[in-house]
Amino acid sequence: MRLNSLLVSRDSEVQKPVAEVFDGVELRVCEDSITALELIGRSHFDGFVIDCDGIERGSELIVAARGSRSNRKSVIFTIVNETAAVTAMELGSNFVLEKPLDAGRLSTYFQSSLRKMETEHRRYFRYELAIDAEVIRRDGTIISAQILNVSDGGLALRLLDRAHLHGSVTVRFSIPNAKGTIITAVALICWSRGPVFGIKFFGMHDDSSAAYAEWLSSMSLV
User: Fold this and answer.
1) Of 43, 55, 165, 202, which residue is most buried, by most CB within 10 angstroms?
2) Where does the chain have alpha helices with state H?
3) Cα Rg, the chain, nearest whole Å
4) Counting Cβ atoms within 10 Å, is residue 72 exposed (0-12), middle (13-18) or buried (19+)?
5) Where does residue 143 fall: left (phi above 0), alpha (psi -120 to 50 degrees), or beta otherwise?
6) How many CB atoms lie within 10 A of CB 92?
7) pLDDT value at position 81?
8) CATH number of 4-124: 1.10.260.40, 3.40.190.10, 3.40.50.2300, 1.10.10.60?
């Protein structure tokens, strides 16, 4: 799944260079703040480009993104007039540019933020799959399970045996790569709906962590 970003601007002198710099990113264009606020409230974007100089209530979009559970860690590029640059940074913008938009500077900022955007993409998006796993409770009981989806920070799984989980557990499973790498992670139970549990990682060996990150990266390119 590709990175995705929201561009809020009705200015063709902004839309064109942003589209060129963000080539390869799924870029959604919105030309008014009301629609943009609705999108921020219901959707996740890895990055935002907000033309505060050409859109009314542009500064509200920065505040809305930073206050959104889905977008609070996304990268925000803001286009402002000279007097509003400091305000945009105070509201939470990562990068501030002025008009006329310097495509070279935007490209530099974009390249420097790619890693953060990719990390946010992996953290937020869950990749659906079906993998056998074992859940090990603190008393040593091993419970068979099936992983339903994975993300950078955790996963959801369905228990195949009747059991109740709470607190911390150990999760062990093999990822479908050429080596069949075994991932072992200490995790915290965050939610449950019947036999399905949401698990957040908080401890993973360096080898497992590196293999898991590489696996997620390979899926994000599909």
Assistant:
1) 55
2) 12-21, 33-42, 58-67, 85-91, 103-124, 206-220
3) 21
4) exposed
5) beta
6) 15
7) 79
8) 3.40.50.2300
Q: Which residue has the tokens 């698990």?
A: 199
Tokens 């939470």 locate to 92
Q: Residue 147, Cα to own-chain centre: how many angstroms? A: 20
* 135 has pLDDT over 90: yes
CATH superfamily of this structure's domain 127-220: predicted glycosyltransferase like domains (2.40.10.220)
Q: Nearest-5° angle of CA 201, CA 128, CA 19? A: 95
In tens, the pLDDT along 162-204 reads 888 889 999 999 998 778 899 999 999 999 998 999 999 999 9
Q: What is the 3-state secondary structure (H, E, C) of 65-100?
A: HHHCCCCCCCEEEEEECHHHHHHHHHHCCCEEEECC
pLDDT digits (tens, 9 = 90+) for 35-87: 999 999 999 999 999 999 888 888 999 999 999 988 999 999 999 876 667 78
Tokens of 82: 């000279």
pLDDT at 84: 67
